[in-house]
Amino acid sequence: MQITLDKVEKGQQVLLKEMKLGSMQMQRLICLGFTPGAIIEITQNYGKGPLMLIIRSTCLALGRGVAKKIWVEIKNTP
Amino acid sequence: MGRNQKYTIALAGNANVGKSALFNQLTGLHQTIGNWPGKTVEIKEGKLLHEDIQITLVDLPGIYSISSISPEEEVTEKFILEKKPDLVINVVDAAHLERNLYLTLQLIEMEVPLVLCLNQVDFAQHEGIQIDHLELSELLGIPVIPTVAIHGKGLHELVHAAVAHIQKNNFPRYLRYGNEIENCIQQIMKELEPFNLKNWSRFFAIRLLENKYDANLKPDLEIQTRIDLCKKEIEDIHHEPIIYVFASERYSKAEHIARKVTSIETPKNKFRLLLDMFLLSPFTGYIALTVFLLFMFSAIFYFGNFIAGYLELIFGAFESFFLSSGIPYAETIWSYLILGVLSAIEVVLPFILPFYLLLSFFEDSGYISRMAVLTDSAMHVSGLHGKAFLPLFLGYGCTVTSILGTRIIEDRKERLVTCFLSTLVPCSARTIIVMGLIGVFIGFQWVLVVYALNLLILILLGRWSSKLLKSESPGLIIEVPSLRWPNAKNIVKSTWFRLKDFFVFVVPIILVGHIIFEFIRNSSFIQGIERAFSYLFEVLWGLPSFTVIPLLFGILRKELGLIMLQTFSPTGSIAGALSPRQMIVYSIIMIFYFPCVATLSALIKELGWKKSLAITGFDIAFAVILGVIVNFILSLFML
Predict the structure, then answer these.
(1) Which domains does chain B possess?
(2) Which residue numbers in chain B have pLDDT < 70?
(3) Fewest CB atoms within 10 Å of the CB: A71, B106, B395, B513?
């Protein structure tokens, strides 16, 4: 099931599926490693304000507006 | 090895990898900071001598990729393509190898001689990350030198390897994509043959396949058709838009390499994690932020005023010494030339010195991006995001620091909006006017009204101007680097260079301003100027004509707008010469009408002449209209 990134709770790992952003932001995110299939771990999400995550060994903060346009799938824990 | 050889070496890498620390360590005190023609992107240049070889080291801006999406990326690409450095040192952060390798792979695609500087290995080890640099070198096909730049470790080896690599003159082997992509690259390369791109042809072929268009090449219709066919072919095979395909391929390569050379243990201490949670959680985070901000603000102003006081004493003593020294035209030389320079130093230096020290401290520690995270939601009200908070906040102290602080905002448009707004934030000098007039003679509640009006206008203008400038909805995307204790030497060095840079630029402009105003003061123009502005002042703003000159001199230093009001008022006291309504109108115009000369020169430095003059023009027009409106409304119920 696909959800948007802002709905993911702290500590959960997800797989990136699709981004529905303008081309500039899309490019920026792709360069930072937001490619389909990339693993994202949410490290902070208080339900408001920006969320923090780890992608490709790097810690990033994303504004909620950006996170709402990134579609992901919850990764099953093995 | 030939004598007197000269090489140019460029440093390229992501932000927050210790690139500037490396640059500072290698070049010592010989640095020049310049802008790339036509762009406000900083490029630092320094020299160093290595075994008889003169090396010009160029510090390129921090970037995450080479795809021309930001001016920084464009400048980096242009520098490498046009200036053709003998070698590029790619600085990577050992703790974030995978993300850093993305740029490395792109640099390899550019086929420039490349050496990898694996920096901050001590910090990575502390986090439990070990990297086999020999294997990394093997996999990438380029020399890899582990370093700890802030402590100077591994730097000699790095320069040595770089020089040896130039002399060997070999190019790295590039990343091979899947067969279907390689096939397309070959086709495009063939089409590009007439352009005579030599070893750039592969890079441009990939660029054309990956992006829509490259302004440097202008492929004709035939080539474009071929490119579009290839793109479609690749997209069909990969089942995803082409924009993802190359990035995915590079990242899977980066991931593969990073995994092979990295061994991870659990980090030795969890203190940093706990500290981070404390600094970022909604409750404790805001308390910490408030404490830091108050500290920063008061440190800048207590320290600033303290130093300014001493400077005033010293300069005063110097003045009497100079005037009694018997130098011909001493008085004229003093008031036209020396006074301008000294007042620039006295007004600006005491405040930007602590500001730059603290800014470097917060930047190096990684706290700036945490500040942006905490204030992001609040800043959305004015159409901006978190990174604009610190500069605007500092604007309540001094507009110059505020404008120089906008450097932390990467996005050009947002930086422009922030610079624009910060000229309208009442700085401490303007606060002195508001307090000295309204606070003293009318009442503190009116001070609050004026500040609330100012804040409301800031929010509205922020929304309006960011809407006007932006085509895309804004959003925060920011790396949050690990917290670390900054290196004192690095802070002092970067503060020194920033200060030097600032004064070389700003002092001449302040000096010219001073000369013009000194000329006006000593001429018979004063009455003429008062007459010229009489309609605006007396009819539209309802202000007496003696306020014209103090208001104009506020351009030099805003405080003069209050000091000179006292000297110019016909009754010798402000209270008898201005009514409450006039005081409010005067203060409001004073807040908005013109950034002072120091601010204007900082603006020009950051944005260039055109945008600075546009902002100044807007501010003046806005103040004129606002003055008329406020005067009209107040005259309905106030004297």
Answers:
(1) 6-168 (3.40.50.300), 179-264 (1.10.287.1770), 269-639 (no CATH)
(2) 1-3, 29-30, 33-40, 68, 170-173, 212-219, 267-269, 471-474, 639
(3) A71
Nearest to A44 among B258, B280, B473 (CB): B280
Distance in angstroms (rounded) separating the CA atoms of residues B60 and B598: 28
The residues near B571 (Cβ < 8 Å, ≥ 6 apart) are B577
Whole domain around residue A56: which residue ranges? Answer: 2-74
In this prediction, residue B301 carries a pLDDT of 75
Confirm if B116 and B136 have CB atoms less than 8 A apart: yes
The arithmetic mean of pLDDT across residues A8-34, rounded, is 89
Tokens found for residue B567: 């000297």
Interface test with B, best of A56, A64, A70, A71 (most B CBs within 10 A): A56
Check: CB of residue B367 under 8 Å from CB of residue B348: no
CB contact under 8 A, B478 and A61: yes
Q: Which residue has tokens 């409106």?
A: B629
CATH for A38: 2.30.30.90
Instruction: Answer whether A60 sits within 8 Å of B478, measured CB to CB.
Output: yes
pLDDT tens-place string over residues B263-285: 888 766 678 778 888 898 888 99
Q: Is B221 exposed, middle or buried (0-12, 13-18, 19+ CB in 10 A)?
A: exposed
Specify the pLDDT at position B449: 93
Residue A31 to residue B479, Cβ atoms within 8 A? no
Do B454 and B426 touch, CB atoms closer than 8 A?
Answer: yes
Which pLDDT score, from 0 to 100, does residue B1 have?
Answer: 46
Residues in A closer than 8 angstroms to B478, CB to CB, are 60-61
Q: How many domains does chain A have?
A: 1
Chain B partners within 8 Å of A22 (Cβ): 471-473
Query: The complex's ipTM?
Result: 0.92
